[in-house]
Amino acid sequence: MNSLICFGLLVFGTGVGLGQKPHPCRSPPLLSGSMTVTAKDGHAWVFAKYRYDAFGQRIRLWEFGKSDSKTFHLNMLFLFREGVVYNIDYRNKTCQKNVLHSTFHPTEIPRNASLLSQVILGGSSAPGEGLLVNTWTGDLDETQGKYMATVTEFGCIPVSLLYYTPEKGWVVTSYFNAVTGIEDPEQFIPPSFCTDIQTEEQTVDFFSAFL
């Protein structure tokens, strides 16, 4: 599963000649920003800050959300190379560790994606009014899923993702405040009180842990 699809905007319209012909692209390997996710037909939503490290195959999330009328706060560290995910509670200095049943893929538009449109978000009457983006669609055979992903024309920064699988239904993600780079790499290191904990028997994937 592509990390852009683990890690959603509905841009409709016809393609216009706003720039050179767009090509599938890969996002910067180090990204920091925020995101919102809506799933379960609107019965679950999340606001999260994220840190993304493609070099080390790591993702850090600080989440606030609501699912089935219950609110929650989560602080999660996904270590794909090690195959584990940590749910960290700094207030009580406790930690839960589970086997992570997900493969890491860099945040990217797959080569077999189809260009839906190139548009300007916002205005185009004067410089600085809008953002040039490309919207792509495609299928994912491994999950029987389909997606519509929007990224910036310059930089391939994720803007939004609409993703569907028969098992999960529709998941809509919007990204904002993205900055290239990681300010504090130690955010990818589990705190000391997580060192000696036992791994839980329950295996989770990225979506089940995230939502």
Keywords, separated by commas or semicolons:
single chain, 211 residues, mainly beta, twelve-stranded mixed β-sheet, 51% strand, globular, disordered N terminus
Query: What proportion of the residues is helical, as a percent range?
Result: under 10%
What order do the SSEs take from the amino end to the carboxyl end, as H and E?
Answer: HEEEEEEEEEEEEH
User: What value does the average pLDDT take?
Assistant: 88
Largest sheet: 12 strands, mixed
Strand order of the largest sheet: 7-8-9-10-11-1-2-3-4-5-6-12
| SS summary, helix count | 2
Which class of secondary structure composition applies to the elements? Answer: mainly beta
The count of strands amounts to 12
Ranges where pLDDT stays below 50 over 5 or more residues in a row are 1-6, 8-18
Q: Using the alpha-carbon principal axes, give the shape.
A: globular
Beta-strand level of the residues, as a percent range?
over 45%
Q: Mind telling me the C-alpha Rg?
A: 18 Å
**First-residue to last-residue Cα separation:** 16 Å
Summarize the structure.
The chain has 211 residues and is mainly beta.
Description:
The chain is built from 2 helices and 12 strands, in the order αββββββββββββα. A hairpin with a 5-residue loop joins strand 9 and strand 10. The protein is 4% helix and 51% strand. It is mainly beta and 211 residues long. It is globular and about 55 Å long. The protein has a 12-stranded mixed β-sheet. The N terminus is likely disordered.
